[in-house]
Amino acid sequence: MASLALSDEILMSVDKPARYIGNEVNMVRKHPENVAIRFVMCFPDVYEIGMSHLGIQILYDMFNQREDVYCERVYSPWMDLHHILKEKKIPLFTLETQSPVKDMDFLGITIQYEMCYTNILQILDLSQIPLFAEERTEADPIVIGGGPCTYNPEPLADFFDLFYIGEGETQYNALFDLYQSIQKQGGTRREFLRAACKLPGIYVPSLYEVTYQEDGTIAAFTPKYQDVPAKVRKEIQTDLTDAPYPRNPLVPFIKVTQDRVVLEIQRGCIRGCRFCQAGMIYRPTRERDVDMLKDCARQMLEHTGHEEISLSSLSSSDYSQLSELIQYLMDFKEKGVNISLPSLRIDAFSLDVMSKVQDVRKSSLTFAPEAGSQRLRNVINKGLTEEVILNGAGLAFEGGWQKVKLYFMLGLPSETEEDMREIPRLADKIARCYYEIPKDRRNGKCQITISTSFFVPKPFTPLQWTPMCTKEEYLARARVVNEEMKAQLNRKSLKYNWHEADVTVLEGVFARGDRRVGQVLLKAYEKGCMFDAWTEAFDNQKWMDAFEECGVSIDFYNLRTRSLDEVLPWDFIDCGVSKEFFIREWQRAQEEIITSNCRQQCNGCGAAQFQGGVCLEYQN
Amino acid sequence: MNIRIKFQKYGVMKFIGHLDMMRYFQKAIRRAGIDIAYSEGYSPHQIMSFAAPLGVGVTSDGEYFDIEVKSSKSSQDAIEALNQTMVEGIRVLEYKRLPDTAKTAMSLVSAASYLVYVKSGYEALAASIEELQAKVEAFYQEQDEINIVKQTKKQEINMNLKPLIYEMKALNLKDLQHLHEVQVENPEILASCCSQSLEQDETIHSLSVPALYLKVCTGSADNVKPELVLEAFCQFHGLSYEPFGLQIHRLEVYAKSDEIPVKGEKERQQYQQFLDHWKKKCLQQGRPFPVFLTLGELGEEIEG
Questions:
Q1: Interface with chain B: mutation pick from A7, A9, A47, A338, highest number of B CBs within 10 Å
Q2: Minimal C-alpha gap between B235 and chain A (Å)
Q3: Nearest-CA neighbor of A504 among A451, A555, A453, A569?
């Protein structure tokens, strides 16, 4: 049995020592001396969050299929262990072999949300790897970033050697082969990076130069050398059926967020909501074949022993073989397997399915109208109408449901006070639906929960040029909603949740920031910011001080309306959807015109260049 | 059909807590294809109950849980299927059928035995086994009462440990034969399992370290954690008590032999007859009737 990096004394004194010992079911064991490349995959948040991430499970399995690669894992040590590692100068270690992270050839970090950015610095710091890419030597691992946030990697540019833009299934093999061939030639880190930047999807930030105009906007973003590509096109796995997918996913000992088999049924979304980055960057929508999914589901359940399976996609109802797949999974119900169906559109079919797989009394229905009024829903291209919501809720109430969750965003472009007030009014109409049912056929009160988040414009969306609100303005809007809610007839059946706006402001800066905000990140980390996604750890004052000390203006990034011809920090990335399309969609948003979904009609977004998924469907 | 499963827990698995071990086995049972019975209702759960929770940091050769199955493989096949899917640090040792009216392992638990040794890098309890034995005698045999103050969440309780410690002695870890003397039942199995799991533990720097053997009252009524005894022992001898420096290793969990382990009038009578018969046999053969039975001894092998 491998010896642990931490002593019994340390492990017995920290919360949940199981986070740090590895040894999980289906953990891959290899002898490090038998492989050419040692890779450590990192999710920069606590174990329970990181272990719930499907992407790492896919790549972990795919990398370890290669005999010459050993892929291990590391997650952010929780704050208790963080302080011990710092104090005792114990280098951060991998879970599998408990080896120092700094001894690996690659450190791959998946970047899923902005509020984990300080944790990336924590990982590098605890690993005793220089934070700045330019200070790393031949002895340090190549630090790779991947995941959705790399569609604007610029705030992190100084800390990474390279970014992998797009889906991991396609280019890692080429990257590993390249690494080995350069190693064999005795090549340096620099030489490897210079060669790697020519692989599709690979962005090496140190090979580009950014200049700024007097007003602070970008003047030019240019490769430093002629052989460095000016544009980096995202990578995409066109055929998801004939693609790597783990049949033996890791099974953690402690309860993690996603404590179940996760079956990704499709990637991408045909809907084209204008605020949604995922709906744009994962284009075209691609389905996995239903037979492959059945086979995966059966094997994964057998190999993990999980008692639940969850279908994963941005919009499960759009999966064309959904009823066949669910029918198949229903057979596992007898073996005590629960089926969880998130992101389903509420209609007669889904209610029928849901009533079979869950306890209707306990479960709740979820609608995400995102905006309170039809006008604003048209602006964001959210096709959900009030009629559809009320019909769905009515059917559900007839079927025995009593709980409804509603998700909205505040601060969307063009939002008026009337739009805000429509949010609780819609909730009240749903409650009225419930109370229209004769008393003897319903079971007490209904419970309608409204949650609002604040809108953060994301790169590669039609709303990428729009300004955000100030923190005060966001909170004022939440108060309008709250006040209107109290005026509703069924207010006792309504509940309203909203968040603090501090985090939203930071998300805004890092989502659309440029290289200059990297220094704020470092400053905030030095002040002790970490686990910013966790309310118990988040310290806004430290952040505000960091911005102040670095002389970086939040307003420049958040409150400014960007002009359509401004050079955006992420313009060098080709996400497959054209800027012309985003501009067209932004104009239609302003005109409050809905754009049809990819199955109804092709809108010429540009993703057809990938020759896959729904784009080919349309041609047939 | 009721089944009792015995397993070992060692190495890094000692850091996995009791609730997580239950979750681990729920999933392992599915992976191994054991035809376990589920409760009724919308979220059916496996019918499974554990005997005596093991603290985090403690290793064990004698963990038990009961399950209900709809059909069963032979003991040997079931053990094989389970061990195919175990992680390093967990090994299934027994899979036995219980009477249909069996009481749960948890309700039967009355004693547990432990080995306690000092981890490498920490100061030994005594220089030699003889010295340790002398210390044990002074603490255990020679004191009429061992009074301690037990701190619970709500209050402090005065407690006399003496009647709750059934056995306490010093022994050499390398000398696992010693276990034959202290264990009444299945000494061979115990010794072989024990040496295997102890070898996995690298906190042992040498098997010649003098260790303590403890058998204490366990169960819901008068539960004695070995830590309580060790703290009192160290205090008595003016040794500093370092909880991280001592490795506690559970050897076995026992039921009282005179407690009838089944429910139902008829079944109880039958068992009483069996007990009487056994006692008579022991008497005839001049053997003492055991005070305790391991939980595993209450079940029987399922033949292939």
A1: A9
A2: 21
A3: A453
Listed by number, the residues of chain B in 190-209 with a beta carbon closer than 8 Å to a beta carbon of chain A are 200, 202-203
Query: Residues B17, B54: one domain?
Result: yes
B261 located within any domain: no
> Residue A8's closest chain B neighbor by CA?
B244
> Could you tell me if B85 and B67 lie in one domain?
yes
Looking at residue B164, its amino acid is: L
Residue of A11, A23, A338 with shortest CB distance to B88: A23
Domain containing B9: what range?
2-107
A531-551 pLDDT, tens digit each: 999 999 999 999 999 999 999
Instruction: Give the pLDDT confidence of B7-24 residue by residue, as tens digits.
Output: 999 999 999 999 999 999
With a CB cutoff of 8 Å and minimum separation 6, the contacts of B261 are B99, B102, B103, B108, B255, B271, B298
Domain match, B55 and B135 both = no
The verdict on B119 touching A (C-beta cutoff 8 Å) is yes
Q: Which residues share a beta bridge with A287? A: A266
Task: Give the closest-approach CA distance of A567 to chain B in angstroms.
Answer: 52
As given in the structure block, the two tokens for residue A275 are 């605020």
Decide which of B74, B107, B140 is a domain's last residue: B107
Q: Could you say which of B23, B38, B89 has the minimum Cβ distance to residue A1?
A: B89
Whether residue B141 sits in one domain with residue B215: yes
Identify whether B187 is part of a domain.
Answer: yes
Give the pLDDT confidence score for residue B226 in this predicted structure.
95
Helix, strand, coil percent values for chain A (each to nearest 5) = 40, 15, 45
* Residues of chain B positioned with their CB less than 8 A from the CB of A17: 15, 56
User: Does residue B298 lie in a domain region?
Assistant: no
For the stretch B100-142, pLDDT in tens is 999 999 999 999 999 998 887 888 888 888 999 999 999 999 9
What is the distance between the terminal CA atoms of chain A, rounded to a whole angstrom? 56
Record the pTM: 0.94
Helix pair A189-196, A172-184: axis angle to 10 deg: 140
Nearest to A18 among B16, B45, B202 (CB): B16
- Among all chains, which residue has been given the structure tokens 């952040």? A543
φ, ψ for residue B223 (rounded to 5)? Answer: -80, 125
Domain limits, chain A: 8-233, 237-344+577-620
Domain count, chain B: 2
Same domain, B157 and B251: yes
Mean local confidence (pLDDT), A55-79: 98
B28/A255 Cβ within 8 A: no
- Burial track A129-166 (b if 16+ CB lie within 10 A, e otherwise): bbbebeebeeebbbbbbbbbbbbbbbbbbbbbbbbbbb
Helix locations, chain B, DSSP H = 18-31, 75-84, 105-108, 129-136, 178-182, 187-199, 226-236, 265-285
The pair of structure tokens assigned to B75 is 């003991």
Residues B17 and B139 grouped into a single domain = no
Residues of A with CB under 8 A from a CB of B: 1, 3-4, 8-9, 11-13, 17-18, 21-25, 27, 251, 253-255, 301-307, 335-336, 338, 358-359, 362
Residue B277: inside a domain: no
ipTM of the complex: 0.92
* Chain A residues touching B203 at Cβ < 8 A: 8
Last residue of a domain, one of B84, B107, B130: B107
Interchain contact, A25 vs B31, CB within 8 Å: yes
C-alpha B216/C-alpha B110 separation (Å) is 9
At B205 the pLDDT is 46
Q: How many residues does chain A have?
A: 620
Q: Are strands A447-454 and A364-370 parallel, antiparallel or unpaired?
A: unpaired
Q: How many helices (DSSP H) and strands (DSSP E) are in chain A?
A: 21, 19
| Residue tagged 């595993």 (tokens) | B296
- Tell me: do B129 and B214 sit in the same domain: yes
Same domain, B142 and B94: no
